[in-house]
Amino acid sequence: MPGPDRFSALAAEGVLGLKPYVPGKPVAELEREYGIRDPIKLASNENPLGPPPASIRAIGAALGDLALYPDGAAFELKNALAKRLAVNPAQITVGNGSNELLSLVAETFLTPVTEAIYSQFAFLVYALSVQATGASARVAPANAAGHAQALGHDLAAMKQLVTPATRLVFIANPNNPTGTWLGAGELRAFIGSLPSHVLVVLDEAYGEYVAGSDWPDTVRWLDEFPNLIVMRTFSKMYALAGLRVGYSVSHPQVAELLNRVRQPFNVNTLAQVAACAALDDAAHVMRSRQLNAQGLVQLGSGLRALGWHVSPSAGNFVLADTGGPALPWYEKLLRAGVIVRPVANYGLPDHLRITVGLPEQNERLLSALRSLMAGKAPKP
Ligand SMILES: *Cc1c(COP(=O)(O)O)cnc(C)c1O
Q: Which is the closest atom of ligand 1 to the Cα of 172?
């Protein structure tokens, strides 16, 4: 066990205020700690269909190359993305998950005398990335409870926080954990209203799930807004969370700055080949989107029938208001072999975030809750 704290006084000030990110409970941990067999995990917004078959084949074919360092320039992946998105490869930066890119952008543009803006209830990694640099976080209050996008980003409130010291604004669209989203018109007007010393990080980790005509192709906005950084990931819709690969699309000069800060081999060989293959697997994307749309309805109506409030979500998860402390429900569900995500660390102690699973997994969650609410022991 550690003795008296000898090293905190030596650490960077920003680090002392950090609380480590708490991930969803891994399946193996639940099996170990609770002795539960065959639990299901609806806690980290992973794709229940598993990786695209084309990615698995590409990984198999690349196994013989593992003695060699990966391609540090990620030539094939950047070119495949550039072609797909109709941009120049020099605009693309790949990262060890988009999480790494969020940290890289913070490291590149923030110092202890600058500021970054994000919304209350926004994805927690923004707070962590900002704080580690020693920069000041300005947190905008979220939309109020009666709003159509309750708990979502209030762009007007975010705009009010801009000062001469602002360097970054983080926006998640859709946002995790709230599932809320912003329409094209308001988002575009907001970005256009920012002064040139402010960069906008537009995190579209769930963008591929959004259905509907109001979903903007924000990469097309880059010509007009050189201060925009669009971030996407292969972890969610593309089902490669375990490999860690994401990308940003930006002005080439922004990409060049990020390239100075990143590790030379930040994205491994298997991740690069699997991501390239995933881009070509349109059928997997279609199946995933369709399954998710059905699952959102199944979970939403099922949870509402049990008396929990569920607001509309544009992602592959729902945020359920449990009407009181959510932690006891989380723990009871764990014992029933269902892992969901408590979000008290987001300031939402009366909510659970639940990832859309396969139809039978969604039903297992609902049926466990039905039993618990009826005072019966759920079948594990
Ligand atoms: C999951 C998630 C990410 C990061 O995912 P990576 O696996 O690091 O690519 C980024 N933003 C949001 C909002 C997320 O939910």
A: 13
Over residues 258-309, the pLDDT tens digits come to 999 999 999 999 999 999 999 999 999 999 999 999 999 999 999 999 999 9
Q: Are strands 341-343 and 40-41 parallel, antiparallel or unpaired?
A: unpaired
Q: Are 115 and 231 contained in the same domain?
A: yes
Pocket of ligand 1 contains residue 173 by CB under 6 Å: no
Question: For the domain that residue 178 is a member of, what is the CATH number?
Answer: 3.40.640.10
Residue 167 lies in a domain: yes
Shared-domain flag, residues 322 and 173: no
Residue having the nearest C-alpha atom to atom 2 of ligand 1: 205
Q: Is residue 62 part of a domain?
A: yes
Same domain, yes or no: 240 and 311? no
* Ligand 1 in reach of 99 Cβ (< 6 A): yes
CA–centroid distance, residue 9 to ligand 1 (Å): 32
* CB of 97 shorter than 6 A to ligand 1: yes
Q: What share of the chain is helix, strand, coil (3-state, %, to 5)?
A: 40, 15, 45
* DSSP 8-state class, residue 143: P
Residues 199 and 249 placed together within one structural domain of the fold: yes
Distance 377 CA to ligand 1 centre (A): 35
Instruction: Identify the CA nearest to 352 among candidates 24, 125, 127.
Output: 24
Atom of ligand 1 nearest to the CA of 233: 9
Return d(Cα 199, Cα 230) in angstroms, integer: 11
**Does ligand 1 come within 6 angstroms of the Cβ of 233?**
yes
Q: How far does the centroid of ligand 1 lie from the alpha carbon of residue 205, in Å?
A: 5
Cα–Cα distance, 360 to 294 (Å, whole number): 12
pTM over 0.85: yes
pLDDT digit string (tens) for 315-372? 999 999 999 999 999 999 999 999 999 999 999 999 999 999 999 999 999 999 999 9
Judgement on whether residues 100 and 135 belong to the same structural domain of the protein: yes
First-to-final CA distance of the chain:
36
CB 174 less than 6 A from any atom of ligand 1 = no
